[in-house]
Amino acid sequence: MILSAIKLRNLPRANNRKNTKSIVMHSSPHKARDESHKPAVSHPYVGNVPISILSDSYKATHFLQYPQAKEMVAYGEFRHGFNKDKNDSRLVSYGIRYLIENYISKQWTESDVDKAFLFSGTHMAPNYTEFPFPRDLLLKFVRENDGYFPVKIEALPEGTCVHARTPVYQITASEEYTPLCTYLETLLTMLWYPTTVATLSRRVRDIVEDSFERTVDEGRSSQLVRSRLHDFGFRGCTSVEQSIIGGCAHLLNFVGTDTMSAAYYAQYALNNGKPVGQSIPASEHSVMTSWPTELLALENLIENFGSGIFACVMDSYDYGKALAQLLPAIASKQIGKGGCIVLRPDSGDPIEAVLQALHAADKVFGSTINSKGYKELRGCGVIQGDGMDLYSIERVCKALEAKGFSAANVSFGMGGGLLQKVNRDTMSFATKLNFISYGDGRCMDVMKQPVTDEGKFSLPGKLAVKYVNGIPTVFPQDSGEVAPEENLFKVVYDKRPVPGVFDSFEVIRERVAYQWTKLPRTADNISASLRKKVEFQRKEKASHCHVRGFGEGDSNGTSMNNGWIPAIAPTAMATVTTSAIGGVAGGGGGWWGG
């Protein structure tokens, strides 16, 4: 049974503080902080931030705010597709492994807890109560669970392609550790970043593949596709760690990268040493301007790299003159080497710069006409990496097609636009509580439903995901509709690391490539049984918002005001239609619309 309206005064608070001297919140701001459990360290900072600090400040106070419970469950989801695109709500779920292996699975120590406790004593705004901290609760799992954080985490397999509003992970905390259910939200929510980068990169690949299909003999199956977007984002990142996480997400879809930190990590930490990313020799403006003339610089490049493939930036001084004068001057030498030179504009109008280079190279090196009627340059190409984004790449592709050039002639680079120009709101990621089992045995499906922003509705109850006609579809876990072997959620952490749960990078790449193309751009991914729960919760919203009437009703639990409703809405309830609760994922608006 599910609790609809709670008599709050009868619910004991979590972690009752009787006889807990080390966790104190004084009613008077002038009382001294009780430090009867003296930490074993003299100073909270010893060169590194302890893992106990890797959460939002207010999370440390929530153990006093939750009601006493036997179990609490929270989940994470993206509320809409990339940039709120209502015509394409697909996303690539990726990045949980990094968080599990590098943070969640780390063993806490008493020293970690002590450092956080000392810090919390300095953290409260002045003239207010002492800042609370769950020291005893944290020390309990340090001593009794080998320092491993005491929650269970289920997640979609890395690289799973789903639609917005599909949960990507679910956290469960039980017994005395229920107040810690959302303590890891701060870390786990960071899944937004690699998933957003992977989705952006994949959508660029869609554009490139479509252009290849129209203009290249092999179409979208051409091996050249995988090198058409190059990651130049390392220097635009705020940290090395960001470059690794975001760079790996991009490498799910392409092999081209200059972010060596990501290529190395993906190869050795995620792919058993097998190469993942590739690059080529290339000049920069500092190289070109260090020579007395650009011609000497270019001749040196040809001498060293002309028999293979290399890129040369062409706008150090005058882009137009460089194309018109330098290319004819080095043509015979480069052709004699037999390799490929890639011309790189780095300023001006992106479309004009690409077309200018294509026409200049066609005059000097020549081209062939493929079976689809498009020109393909001989021994030359162009890479445009100046200010590129999802939409400008599409415009360039259409422009070169209109001028009769094959998409095989052009590659793209993205720097900050790939690894930095995204945020949590790009696909609106959030983690929310969805279920609680109270200390007296009663249960409640939890659903956030702010009237001021319908887009921030959350899903109620424990959740499961399974394929229905090829669509990852969300069900209530307690509906009996999802067998354990059908549930896409896999346990990736269970109060300690779970060995062997993550696939190699190569397998994940294959998963993305296969699933993305099979998934329709939008779909109805909410099951009928979950829709009933949602609608029932929305009808019950008033009873959650008002104190008057709580606990009233018949003792048999049939009245809406007595605090008891079924785990799933009664079968007598009318079937909820799509339009009744706001459309389908990615299109049509409403609470799970774009």
Pick out its properties.
nicotinate phosphoribosyltransferase, 19 strands, 2 domains, 15% strand, disordered C terminus, TIM Barrel, 16 helices, alpha+beta, 5-stranded parallel beta sheet, 594 residues
Query: What portion of the residues fall into strands of 2 or more residues?
Result: 15-25%
CATH superfamily of the largest domain: nicotinate phosphoribosyltransferase
CATH architecture of the largest domain: Alpha-Beta Barrel
Strand ordering within the main sheet: 15-14-2-6-4-18
Q: Can you summarize the main beta sheet?
A: 6 strands, antiparallel
How does the overall form come out from the CA principal axes?
elongated
Instruction: Give the total of domains.
Output: 2
**CATH fold name of the largest domain:** nicotinate phosphoribosyltransferase
CATH C-level category of the largest domain: Alpha Beta
**Which class of secondary structure composition applies to the elements?**
alpha+beta
The N- to C-terminal Cα distance equals 33 Å
Helix content range of the residues, please? 25-40%
Q: Cα-atom Rg, whole angstroms?
A: 29 Å
Note poorly predicted spans. 1-33, 41-46, 547-594
Strand element count? 19
Pfam families: NAMPT_N, NAPRTase
GO molecular function, one term: nicotinamide phosphoribosyltransferase activity
Enzyme class: transferase
Family: Belongs to the NAPRTase family.
